[in-house]
Specification:
This protein is of the alpha+beta class and 349 residues long. It contains ten helices and 16 strands. The strands form three sheets. Strands 7, 8, 9, 10, 11, 14, 15 and 16 form an eight-stranded mixed sheet that branches. Strands 1-2-3-6-5-4 form a six-stranded mixed sheet, with helices on both faces. A two-stranded antiparallel ribbon has the order 12-13. A hairpin with a 4-residue loop joins strand 5 and strand 6 (127-131). Helix 5 (185-194) crosses helix 10 (333-346) and helix 8 runs antiparallel to helix 9. The radius of gyration is 21 Å and the shape is globular. The model has no long low-confidence stretch (mean pLDDT 93).
Length: 349
């Protein structure tokens, strides 16, 4: 096949999907994980990505019976019958044009040029393929949230979204934490977990607006830079903590530090935008819906390929439904956690 362009993109996607399915008996491993309303099955080779799929999710509880299943093939040369991925041609590439052309064909997709890394998904059949040049040739962020675009496309088809946000809660109620890198979001989630609060995840949580605003767990990963790791006492808590990841952060699991089993959902009562204030005590004050939208939507849309327009509508609806606040972070993790717990249990200050 010639190099890929917008003109032959849909044909290439169908070819890659058909090739991956036709070789289904040639994948050495099958990994299955139960997620909210979904069983995700991945067929792939042993290695780092297989390990990430096996350990990178928070499995749904037994009483949360999945209604659907999706199947993802992680394909590359070395698996019998799989051809090397093609490269993008000389024609201009834009994410919007790429996604629109696939959507016209009823498909979804993503392309990372530096590695000739392709992801295609057929939402009608719930079948996807991740095509790579080799079994370890994936972007460095992939192990932290494995197969994330496929889950984004699957849940978006149901009117749900993966939000780039953290979460903390108590007694089944919670707050959503949104903000850019360095704002203190991840440190706040860890501080809460270390001081008795619950979480359904940091970085990415699944949001459903069908009735109330509910957040559900998907990915198990937490991350902290060395300074935060030291300040929060995680070295003593976790012992062995492995090497730094591609962002220069330590990576570990939510349930490594959670006081209780991860809840299957939290009913969100507010959206909070954390920032490091420099003051000793934490405080919570109202913030405009516009500022909350700026903190939540851009990264949540930029990091999720396709579904751009529906994403803006979704996050706009979410910020209309939830009261929005600025969380000015103090210096002590226990005091931060206590401030959030008081807010959830007693209501807005």
């Amino acid at each position: 096949m010639p190099r890929v362009t917008l003109e032959n993109l849909a044909d290439y996607a169908r070819y890659v999907l058909a090739q991956a399915e036709s070789c289904s008996a040639n994948y050495p491993l099958t990994r299955a994980v139960r997620l909210p309303g979904l069983t995700l099955t991945a067929q792939l080779n042993p290695g780092g990505l297989a390990d990430a799929v096996a350990s990178g999710f928070i499995a749904a509880r037994d009483d949360e019976a999945p209604a659907d299943a999706c199947r993802i093939f992680v394909a590359h040369p070395g698996i019998d019958g799989i051809a090397a991925p093609e490269s993008w041609g000389n024609s201009p590439f834009t994410q919007h044009g790429f996604a629109s052309r696939l959507a016209e064909a009823g498909l979804r997709g993503n392309h990372y040029h530096d590695l000739d890394f392709w992801q295609f998904y057929d939402p009608d059949r719930r079948v996807g393929v991740q095509l790579m040049t080799a079994e370890d040739s994936f972007p460095p962020w992939e192990p932290g949230a494995p197969l994330r675009p496929f889950l984004h496309w699957e849940y978006a088809a149901r009117g749900m979204r993966l939000a780039h946000a953290g979460s903390l809660g108590i007694g089944g109620k919670g707050v959503l934490l949104a903000g850019s890198g360095g704002a203190g979001k991840s440190g706040t989630v860890v501080a809460g977990l270390l001081n008795g609060l619950d979480s359904v995840g940091d970085d990415y949580v699944l949001i459903d607006l069908a009735e109330d605003v509910t957040a559900h767990p998907l990915f198990a990963t937490l991350k902290q830079d060395p300074e935060g790791f030291r300040r929060l006492g995680l070295k003593e808590r976790l012992g062995s903590h492995g090497p730094l990841n591609w962002q220069g952060k330590y990576q570990f699991r939510v349930d490594d530090i959670a006081a209780r089993p991860i809840p299957g959902r939290l009913d969100m009562i507010a959206l909070m935008v954390p920032h490091i204030s420099g003051g000793e005590a934490s405080s919570i004050t109202p913030v405009s819906r516009k500022d909350a939208m700026i903190a939540l939507a851009p990264s949540g849309i930029a990091q999720m390929p396709g579904e751009r327009e529906s994403g803006f509508r979704f996050f706009s609806d979410l910020t209309r439904r939830l009261p929005c606040y600025r969380l000015s972070l103090g210096t002590r993790p226990d005091e931060i956690a206590g401030t959030i717990a008081d807010f959830i249990t007693r209501g807005a200050p």
